[in-house]
Amino acid sequence: MTHKEIQTIEKAEAALAAAEPLPFPLSSKGLEPFIAGGFTGVEKTDWVFPGLRERVGAVLRNCPIDRLVDGHAGARPYRVAPVSTSPSTRLLQACGVAMVHRDDAVLCFIGHGAAATGSFYEALNLAALHRLNLIVLARTQDL
Q1: Roughly what angle, to the nearest 10 degrees, separates helices 32-40 and 3-18?
Q2: Distance CA 130, CA 139 (A)
Q3: Which end of the chain has less Cβ packing within 10 Å, N or C?
Q4: Closest by alpha carbon to 2, among 30, 47, 41, 44?
């Protein structure tokens, strides 16, 4: 991860906020290194399951901002899954993709609140039982 990648995310976030993203905008201010590290830490052929804040990282895969305005649409050619507002559900969806794409890694961004749900533990158990190539990147502080 480089300073240039962080600046790219900052510029993209400003452009995304100006485009009035759906379902609603959430700032990624202060999370740029977290987002850049996640997106650059996996291959461009690997799937990424971002949250509302992390979807802006898709610009590091050359995804145009207009593809990110509707968070529910996703950016399939860039292997960025549609945004789910439920982090633990997103983690279960990431497990499903990891089961299908066994040779690829699947990265899922979550917040610390996801650990308070049963589906979080179901997803971790599923990943362990099936030895999925799943990377869970958890943000432990709120903005």
Answers
A1: 110
A2: 25
A3: C
A4: 41
